[in-house]
Design goal:
The chain has about 170 residues and is of the alpha+beta class. The protein has 2 helices and 10 strands, in the order E-E-E-E-E-E-E-H-E-E-E-H.
Length: about 170
């Protein structure tokens, strides 16, 4: 069989049943990053980690260093898992990550707490529409989520957001 000109062979990634790799990229050390319709995958030393798109907190590309970085949603006060790699040829992976993460956001509402402190109420769900809506809070640095005033503002903003969009 002849190789197709202009195409780089896709690295092999074991994905969940019913999923298909839509874009992928590899690093010089063999790390593979890939995306399907439903999740982001990172394979390091043969170990595969699946991160559903609605569990991606942020992703970014540094063109100068050719570094891709993806962080997962986490719990307040706990370190969030971060996946970073130098990708010499990211191909369509960057576009896929942006599109899928954006598709998982149902609502994002900014709430000012005064003194230049804010929180966000965010509703996320799988881009496929499967499963329910997950509501999360994201706090600016320096905001104490255990402060009774912050808790009250967050609770009020969540109730208003749910009522506005008609989601549970």
């Amino acid at each position: 069989m002849r190789p197709r000109w202009g195409r780089t062979p896709s690295p092999s990634v074991a994905v969940a049943p019913g999923e298909k790799v839509l874009a992928s990229a590899s690093t010089a050390d063999g790390t593979v990053m890939a995306g399907t319709r439903d999740a982001f995958y990172v394979v390091v030393d043969g170990d595969t980690r699946r991160v559903p798109w609605e569990q991606v907190e942020a992703a970014g590309w540094d063109r100068d260093t050719e570094t891709f970085r993806l962080s997962e949603v986490g719990s307040w006060g706990e370190e969030r898992p971060v996946h970073a790699a130098v990708l010499e040829q990211p191909g369509r992976l960057l576009e896929l990550v942006h599109e899928r993460v954006t598709a998982s956001v149902v609502l994002q509402r900014h709430v000012s707490l005064g003194r230049r402190q804010n929180l966000r109420v965010i509703a996320r769900r799988a881009p496929s529409g499967a499963g329910g809506v997950q509501w999360i809070y994201e706090y600016d640095e320096g905001v104490d989520p255990d402060d009774p005033a912050v808790r009250a503002a967050a609770r009020e903003a969540l109730e208003l957001a749910r009522r506005d969009v008609g989601l549970p």
